Request: fold
Amino acid sequence: MNISGEYKKIKRTGILPGVFAGGILAASIPILELAVRSEQYTGLVQSPLQTILEADWQMMAMLNMLLVITASCMLYHTEYADHAIQRITTLPIREEAVFIGKFLLMTGLSIAALVMEMLSLIFCTLHWFGGEGGAYETCYGEISAGAYLEFIKDLAADFAYCLGMLIPVILLSLLIASAWKNMWIALGIDVVCVFMATIIPERYFALSIFPFALPFRILEGVSADRAVDYLIAAAAEAMIIGAAEMIFMKVRRALA
Amino acid sequence: MNIIETSNLTKTYAGFTAVSGVNLHIPRGTVYGFLGPNGAGKSTTMKMFLGLTKPTKGDFVIDGKKFPQDRIRILKEVGSFIEAPAFYGNLTGEENLDIVRRIIGLPKSSVDDALELVGLTQWRKRLARKYSLGMKQRLGLASALIGRPPILILDEPTNGLDPVGIHEIRSLIRSLPEKFNCTVLVSSHLLPEIELMADNIGILNHGRLLFEGTLEELRRRAQAKGFPAENLEETFLALIEEDNMQRNHIR
Ligand SMILES: Nc1ncnc2c1ncn2[C@@H]1O[C@H](COP(=O)(O)OP(=O)(O)OP(=O)(O)O)[C@@H](O)[C@H]1O
Ligand SMILES: [Mg+2]
Reply:
């Protein structure tokens, strides 16, 4: 029930077209950038994925986050606007299950956006770096089946890492959206958090694991240890935020 | 046999007592009218029955079950409509009922059945946001009636309906125990309305239960106290007034 039920509730809210529009917008960033000034990047002797992500991921991550926070606010807005949640809580289901359903749905939508972005990375790599003697060849060898496999493996790792970094944001923005019946307050808090995240200097690890700062992290060009540190931080945050939401709902029910 | 029973049920909000030591007895297969002026505590009592708010003191049994341990089993048996209609404005009436249907786990046909019961079939494809007040009210009722649950808790179900609608819904509620063998707890401010629907009534004022019994018993009680008994509305008003005066004396 959970995820498909939650999916049915977003009909006509504009969330789905919004996710597609946002995904396409984010996907077009590296394409536009490379179309305009590929000469700045094509000469670099490093993995083309690293080149593209280092150049454009900040902006793409920002778009992904804005997508997640607005969609999360809308998801709970449909519940609160006409008190639908009041009817739902008198049905044989837990409010916690609604939250989990929304989390799964939001994760699915984020995956859809990320897939679009990864497709764009494939296109950019092959189009601008795939030529003879290009970075792709230097990095993965001749364009043959084996080279593809290596490349796809790297891409999959990037994809999984980006998704992992986004999970705490999904959870936290859903928590914030569920806590305020007025969507604008939740959205305001989220936006403040995102902008706070953009001014956090990367060199302070303790600060850079602020949930809304995590999506700016990329797997390329950092040591494996660092990457693992961030993954652990993301997993820990996901668990803490999830637990906090469960406790919050319990307390809110008890105080009602 | 009582399907719902409360013992000394009390709800206090930050020092203010909304429901005070109420003992209700709602017999199975009847319509029970829950009467009281604004702020009497009707909605609060009903919310406790649905687990929307916890009693401060006392407790209650619904069909032999208790909160919180039997929450899911109780809610499976109870169709409810509390205060304002609650719905997804971005979905049609039909889609709204389908969400509820899926959660309860009912067959697809139950949606049509519920729409038909409340006379919403012709507007099933319209967005709930664009419903008129009466249509929203009917949608709320349909969502309570879906699957024909054995217990119905309806808070002022005829609010906002036109005279024809009021008549339809009253007749529907009146007929539910016989047709579907269910028990209905229905609240209202109006004794004449309750008179037309209910077998038993409970009168609440400032959180206290002033009277519980059949209409006949209410009439007899009124006569004994010298209240106007030919007109039940006046009986009700006199009862409330007497209680308010006593409260003021105590204060
Ligand atoms: N969440 C709350 N916090 C504080 N007081 C509350 C809360 N909910 C209800 N009350 C108070 O409890 C009292 C009973 O309210 P309730 O809604 O049960 O009345 P009611 O009998 O349903 O009235 P009406 O006929 O107007 O619907 C009121 O005085 C109300 O102000
Ligand atoms: Mg009320």
Observations:
- The mean pLDDT of chain A is 93.
- Chain A has one domain: 3-255.
- Residues 3-255 of chain A form one domain.
